[in-house]
Each structure stands twice: as structure tokens, then as C-alpha cells.
Write a structure and sequence with these properties.
The complex is a heterodimer of chains A (about 190) and B (about 110). Chain A is mostly helical and about 190 residues long. Chain A is built from eight helices and two strands, in the order H-H-H-H-H-H-H-H-E-E. In chain A, helix 1 packs across helix 2, helix 2 crosses helix 4 and helix 7 crosses helix 8. By secondary structure, chain B is mainly α. The chains are: A mainly alpha (about 190), B mainly alpha (about 110).
């Protein structure tokens, strides 16, 4: 039995509600929590925020499970839901940060970037942290989730050509910042 | 861009560290989510009463019937105009059991 089939069965049972439905949904939580928190951590840059948003996404998915349709696509459906929540969360956080800055408080994300050589993971985190959010989002979907452009367009709720264009710009911007921070594209590491 | 192109892409290689990463979730994350779902299920009425809840409600109903039967006296039982269940339903602290205001004054008058 494939995971997709398992998901389809669990979604079908969850859609019937009752205690059996709740237990089926809890199995979906066990199965999908790891990748979902990882995705949200890369989108939001904070695992704590990612866990909060993942929890919210699971609750919303539970309440709307009937609209999931084909349960074998549960992961994709959950991803769209979580991405919307992350987008809203980030927008709210940004609004809050602007307010705090105006109030004379230093927003945590405005701390000056680290200088000097940083290795692999840290360099990547730094580059993603500087990248504009729409670019960060599409880079994570493409290179962490390894989604094809068509599916990315679905997650971002934009057209396929718009997704291609955004990805192309995101790549260029990523490379520019990566090199600026000492990364070496030819050696896949530091220059 | 197909899978082959993706795999030969230098950016894809750079992101490998993220793809292989296993996030160390908070120890109580799963339980926290399930606890929230349980609360939502109960409050949003998306979960019908459990078997235990149904059993409990049936047991309470049965005991009410038994109490009403035990409390019936022969005199009350012979009274054709009395409601046999009225004793079981009406309680001293039940405001619905109190006579309408003004009835007592009428009697005194």
C-alpha cells in the first residue's frame, strides 16, 4: 500500500467524522508533521513560529477535511493551506515589526548580518533570510520540496508562466546574494 | 525544468543540506496538535457523542424513570387527574414549579 493510498483512506475515514475520523486524522498529523514543520521553518526562518503555524494548519485541515477531495493529494492540499497561513503570519509579523521600529524598538530580524566566512547551512540560511519573501518561498518549494513548476504555480495560486518568471528572478537574486556573501556557485561552496 | 535538469543544477546541490535535514520537533508537538484537535472536535460539534457519553445519558434517563416510579404513592396513583411523571420532573428549587405570581393573593382575597 502506498503512502498516497494510505492518505486517501485516512482522509476518507476522517471525513466521516466521529471518533474514528478523529483518530484517522491524528495519523495524518503523525505522518505529515515533519515535512510540514521543516517547510514552514524555511519559509518563516523560525521553528517556533513554524510549529505554531503547522498546528493551525492541521486544525484548519481537520475542520475542512471534506473539501480535501482526493485524499491522495492530502500533502499538496495541506501545503497550500499552510503556505497561506505562513504568508499571513509573515505579513502580520512584518506589520508588527514596522510598528515596533516606529516605536523605537529594535526588531529582532534587523540585527546586522554575520560577517566572515560561514559554512553551508548557515550561508544558505543567511541568503534565504535576505531574499525577498516571494523569492524565498518559490526557492524553498523548488529546491527543498522539489516541486515541479506546475505544482508550484498551484501552491502559490498563480499561473504557470508567472511561476516560471518568478523562479527565474528568484534564482538570479539568490545567486547574486550567495556570491556577495562569499558563496561559490562553481564549487557549490565558499569562494 | 525536469528532474534531470534539477539535479544538475548547482542551486539544487546547495539546498541538499536542507533537504536532508530532519527537524527536531518540540517533544510535545504531536500531543499539542492532537489536544487542540480534540478540543476543536468537541466544541465544533464535528464529533458525535462517544459511546460512553451515550451510555451515560441512557443510564441517567433510566434512573429518572425508576425514581419517578418509586416515588409514586398509591393515593397519587389513584388520582386520575394527576400527572404520574410530575413528581419526577418538578423540584422545589425548580422555578418552573413555583405558582404564578399573584395566585396566593387571590386566595387570600
Amino acid at each position: 500500500m502506498t503512502t498516497a493510498t494510505d492518505d486517501a483512506t485516512l482522509v476518507r475515514v476522517a471525513g466521516k467524522r466521529g471518533l474514528a475520523g478523529q483518530l484517522a486524522f491524528e495519523k495524518l498529523v503523525d505522518r505529515h508533521q515533519q515535512w510540514l514543520v521543516r517547510l514552514l521553518t524555511h519559509l518563516l526562518g523560525s521553528q517556533s513560529d513554524a510549529e505554531d503555524i503547522a498546528q493551525e494548519a492541521f486544525i484548519r485541515a481537520f475542520l475542512a477535511i471534506e473539501s480535501c477531495g482526493d485524499g491522495s493529494r492530502f500533502r499538496g492540499w495541506l501545503r497550500v493551506l499552510a503556505r497561506r497561513l505562513a504568508f499571513n503570519h509573515r505579513r502580520d509579523a512584518k506589520t508588527r515589526a514596522r510598528y515596533e521600529e516606529r516605536s523605537g524598538m529594535l526588531a529582532a530580524h534587523n540585527v546586522a548580518p554575520m560577517s566572515g566566512a560561514v559554512e553551508g547551512r548557515d550561508l544558505l540560511k543567511q541568503v534565504l533570510g535576505v531574499l525577498a519573501y516571494p523569492y524565498r518561498e518559490i526557492m524553498v518549494l523548488r529546491f527543498v520540496e522539489e516541486l515541479p513548476v506546475k505544482e508550484i504555480a498551484g501552491v502559490l495560486e498563480i499561473g504557470e508562466s508567472a511561476a516560471k518568471m518568478r523562479l527565474s528572478r528568484a534564482r538570479a537574486e539568490f545567486q547574486r546574494i550567495y556570491e556577495k556573501k562569499g558563496g561559490d556557485p562553481s564549487g557549490h561552496g565558499r569562494a | 525544468m525536469d528532474t534531470e535538469e534539477l539535479e544538475s543544477d548547482w542551486i539544487h546541490s546547495v539546498f541538499e543540506v536542507f533537504r536532508e535535514e530532519v527537524v527536531a520537533l518540540a517533544a510535545d508537538f504531536g500531543d499539542r496538535v492532537k489536544g487542540e484537535i480534540d478540543q476543536v472536535a468537541a466544541s465544533q460539534d464535528v464529533r458525535p457523542p462517544s459511546a460512553m457519553a451515550l451510555f451515560t445519558s441512557v443510564a441517567i434517563e433510566s434512573s429518572n424513570v425508576a425514581v419517578s416510579l418509586l416515588r409514586r404513592t398509591p393515593a397519587e396513583g389513584d388520582d386520575a387527574g394527576s400527572d404520574p411523571d410530575s413528581d419526577a420532573v418538578e423540584r422545589d428549587d425548580d422555578p418552573r414549579a413555583a405558582p404564578p405570581e399573584g395566585d396566593g393573593d387571590k386566595e387570600r382575597d
